[in-house]
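Fold it.
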Amino acid sequence: MPLDSAQTRTLSQARGFIGRRPGLRGYLLLSPTLMIVGTLMLIPVLGMAVMSFWQQTGHMAFDMSGTLNNYAEAFTRDMYRVLFLRSLSISGLTTLATVVMAFPLAFFIAFYVKRHKMVWIILVTLPFWTSYLLRVFSWKVILGYNGAVNSGLMSLGMISEPLDFLMYNPTAVVITLTHAWATVAILPIYVSLEKIDRSLLEAATDLGDSPFVRFFRIILPLALPGILAACVLIFIPTVGDYVTPSLVGGSDGYMIANVIQFQFGRGSNWPSGAAISLTSMTIVAILVGAFVWSARRLSGRRG
């Protein structure tokens, strides 16, 4: 059916409106994907939100009349508070250690590798070619009582008996998570560094800036978006990690996700697990939002 003049004019105006806004064009192209991802994420979150107001009355038996007891317990129980603070500290240390270790490699690839950069990128992603569980187990072998570190130190005569503080503590969790998420930090930082206009560095050199001053005045501020992306991509999933604390953390390295996993597993207390999950998600979202806002505001003032 052919369009009349009014419909044609409306369609032309819509095209012109979209054409003047490249960002809107991008969102329209992404809209089907965003709808699918948003729906698949929203449905389980809404399911957990509804379930969090139920009350467990027996094994897999629930009172659905509605109560806030699960949230009250999530906020007031000392064990949950201790585990959540431990989760934040472990994830914060992991994020800091990973970004500090990833930045030099990303900087080297962006500024010093002139040929075959793709080969370096592939080498950086090599750890992702193996199972996450295998990588965690490898650190269990390395740091274990009879592992590679203890065996090497004993063969060198530096210790007389194996060290027992290398495993089953928060330090082992931080080391394992740092290795596991290093690639996630390197890639966004590398992208930000690669986009820096090299003429800015040449101009700073001509004006007499030393490499140290050039780094802090130009490179670091322009790399901030990649650093922020790396921090967010590492901090959020590591707060919710329960596999690594279970395997290398021991009782001293347990995190809040281990409690959630227990409640949905052997504990069979799904309403409590849902309430703890949503409480943790909300607090982490607030902290991440405040961190990103503060970092961008500070960067704007420096600029």
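The beta strands are 55-58, 61-63.
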